[in-house]
Amino acid sequence: MLTFIHLSKEICLRYMMKKVLFLCTGNSCRSQMAEGILRDLAGDRFEVLSAGTHPTRVHPAGIKVMAEWGIDISHHTSDFVDDYLDAGMDIVITVCDDANQLCPTFPGVIEHIHWSVDDPFVNWSDEEHLLRPYRRTRDKLRARIQEFLGSRD
Question: Has residue 12 got a pLDDT over 50?
Answer without folding.
Answer: no
